[in-house]
Write a structure and sequence with these properties.
Elements: H1 3-8, H2 36-44, H3 58-70, E1 75-79, H4 82-93, E2 99-103, H5 108-120, E3 124-128, H6 133-139, E4 144-150, H7 162-171, E5 175-179, H8 184-187, E6 197-201, E7 215-219, H9 221-235, H10 241-252, H11 254-273, E8 278-282, E9 300-305, H12 309-318, E10 323-324, E11 334-337, E12 357-361, H13 367-379
Helix pairs in contact: 3-10, 4-5, 4-9, 12-13
The chain binds pyridoxal-5'-phosphate (PLP).
Length: 381
């Protein structure tokens, strides 16, 4: 299935709603049944029927079909956030006494989930450097049930060899999850490499407009059903129909947004790469030792500034076109200094990344406008 068919048509049964080009927002909590027998049938398998919007909703279903197809998955579930999607996938797959292996620099709330929430329920976690397959082999125990990957992560972009980890895991009956928010399905499709579950923060590139918080799980039908009848329905962290409709609209332009971002990012990497105030530049396209090459150039990059904290503050405060914010993946360019997370004085040892690290998220603005802005701000250091 080609990508434009997925983005423009898949899942859209227009004959059912007056051939409207844009689908309706099915803003309803419940669905009625024509008779008792139909009600019984619907309730016997809520995964496959319209009963209640915490389970199924037609607007949400369109988004699920598109995301599943993009990830070459049989099915997908969507959630009210990426964190909810990750938590649902993980909680569905582990039980007391189990052990999970996690890459050592995952998204902050994935770390909290694996390191603290799971611990409360008797599930142990080992955090390892995922760049070396040997570390997975070493960390595995007879209790290991799950490996949680993030390739690349969204700050320093370490990657894992997904096919190799998937093969190792399958040989030991271990399930694998990859957070694919950074790469998007345009950059890599982990299920095709043997990974069991792809998790997304759709808040980022998939929706792409900084106006929806959402998540997704893409997997085979059996796993989607397991998650649906477990954490999905019990925690109820659903994506409301209106947000699903916005996400469908955001997704329409995924390819053009990512192409524009790639072109701009190449120019920005070239500019920063030769700038004397940039000590080290981080981006997957620059990483010769990366586990695997992504098929697209993404607009998230980091650098170590040749500056103290005061200099970093002057640089960030001087930027006019980059908004100072967390997150990424929207239409607008952002700057995120690690030094801005908290007052690090006396707590420097707690930092797992260099404190002079600054992340940029490249948006849809013109490259020369962004470069000019960076140039003037770098002079303020
Ligand atoms: C933002 C993010 C998440 C969490 O997603 P939310 O939609 O904010 O809950 C998970 N993983 C990565 C890599 C992220 O960037």
């Amino acid at each position: 299935m080609d990508i434009s068919y997925i983005l423009n048509h898949l899942g859209e049964t227009r004959e059912q709603y007056a051939h409207a080009v844009v689908p309706p927002i099915w803003q309803t909590s419940i669905f009625a049944h024509p008779d008792v027998q139909s009600m019984r049938e619907a309730m016997s398998d809520e995964y496959a029927h319209h009963v209640y919007t915490r389970g199924n909703n037609p607007t949400v279903a369109i988004l699920r079909k598109k995301l599943a197809a993009l990830e070459q998955a049989e099915e997908a579930l969507v959630f009210g956030s990426g964190a909810a999607a990750m938590a649902a996938a993980v909680l569905a797959l582990v039980k007391q006494g189990d052990h999970v292996i996690v890459v050592d620099k995952p998204y902050s709330w994935t770390r909290k989930l694996a390191g603290e929430v799971l611990a409360k329920f008797g599930v142990a976690a080992s955090f390892i450097d995922g760049r070396d397959l040997g570390n997975f082999v070493e960390a595995r125990t007879d209790a290991t049930r799950l490996i949680i990957l993030e390739s690349p992560n969204s700050l320093t972009f370490e990657q894992q060899d997904l096919a190799a980890v998937a093969k190792f895991a399958a040989a030991h009956g271990i399930k694998t999850i990859v957070d694919n928010s950074y790469a998007t399905p345009l950059g890599q499709t982990p299920l095709a490499q043997g990974i069991d579950i792809v998790v997304h923060s759709g808040t980022k590139y998939l929706n792409g407009h900084s106006d929806v918080v959402m998540g997704a799980v893409c997997a085979c039908e059996a796993l989607c059903r397991e998650i649906f009848y477990g954490p999905y329905m019990t925690l109820g962290a659903i994506l409301p129909p209106h947000d699903a409709w916005l996400a469908i609209r955001g997704l329409r332009t995924l390819v053009v947004r990512m192409e524009r971002i790639a072109n701009t990012t190449r120019k920005i990497l070239a500019f920063l790469g030769q700038h004397p105030k940039i000590k080290r530049l981080y981006h997957p396209a620059l990483d010769q030792n990366a586990g695997q090459a992504l098929k697209i150039v993404n607009g998230l990059l980091s650098f170590e500034l040749d500056a103290d904290i005061a200099g970093i503050e002057r640089f960030c405060d001087a930027l006019r076109r980059f908004l100072l914010s967390i997150s990424w993946g929207g239409h607008e360019s952002l700057v995120f200094p690690v030094a801005g997370v908290r007052d690090w004085r006396g707590r420097e040892h707690e930092a797992s990344v260099p404190l002079n690290l600054v992340r940029l998220a490249i948006g849809l603005e013109e490259a020369d406008v962004l470069i000019e802005d960076l140039d003037q701000a770098l002079r303020q250091i």
